[in-house]
């Protein structure tokens, strides 16, 4: 029995989607170097630093960016500086941790072509493809904006359908190596288990998962939802089981926005993935 225990491999601590820092993101905290050294102190094998892409235009500025007096060009300049800084830190700490210099792409009007141009310019190690907007409305900022998006979609089921259709377009056009927080659309919906099972929604979920499998992409198992009071990470259990059935890799992501949230709930995420039956030999997208 003692030998069996010794032979059990403990999964590496990793984050496929994290590392937002106050240095390069107005709603995060701490410097990027402080974030990376926090990953090292907590024993992470590797981490993907996935800063948000800059907005296409000032219409898509977030309230914190407006409050800071920033415009599109300011944030673009900051983003270019982010990639340069991340590359330097990647090299500086190469003996302690493997860092991926990546970014998080968006799905609002004009975002796909802009993300494609950014990829050519900064040559990231990979991108995380996320949907934070439906009808160009940020659905994860407030309940009021979420309700506005519901109205624009003609109801909650329509909103789910529009979200997963946007995600499908992103998957096909950008082919991001990682799909960020697959079912973020449930963020302000206490009845999401019911709505995820609705035939119009579940059909789209299956379609998207099958495309993810076809393209050999990875799902971000995003545990930040737990930090915000959710009962389970993104992805919810029924969707996660479908991903397992399709043999789609799911890798934990802390979606950290400061030193305090580096690695937060990662162990819980790993435990869920282990119990569900996922392979915990985590694949770094750029390896």
From TrEMBL:
GO biological process, one term: L-histidine biosynthetic process
Entry keywords, A to Z: Amino-acid biosynthesis, Histidine biosynthesis, Hydrolase
Catalytic activity: L-histidinol phosphate + H2O = L-histidinol + phosphate
The EC number(s) this enzyme carries: 3.1.3.15
UniProt xrefs under InterPro entries: Histidinol_P_phosphatase_HisJ, PHP_dom, Pol/histidinol_Pase-like
Annotated PHP domain residues: 20-222
One Pfam entry name: PHP
Keyword Amino-acid biosynthesis: yes
Domain of life assignment: Bacteria
GO MF assignments: histidinol-phosphatase activity
EC class name: hydrolase
Coiled coil ranges: none
Gene3D superfamilies documented for this protein: Metal-dependent hydrolases
GO cellular component: cytoplasm
Protein name: Histidinol-phosphatase
Provenance organism: Desulfonema limicola
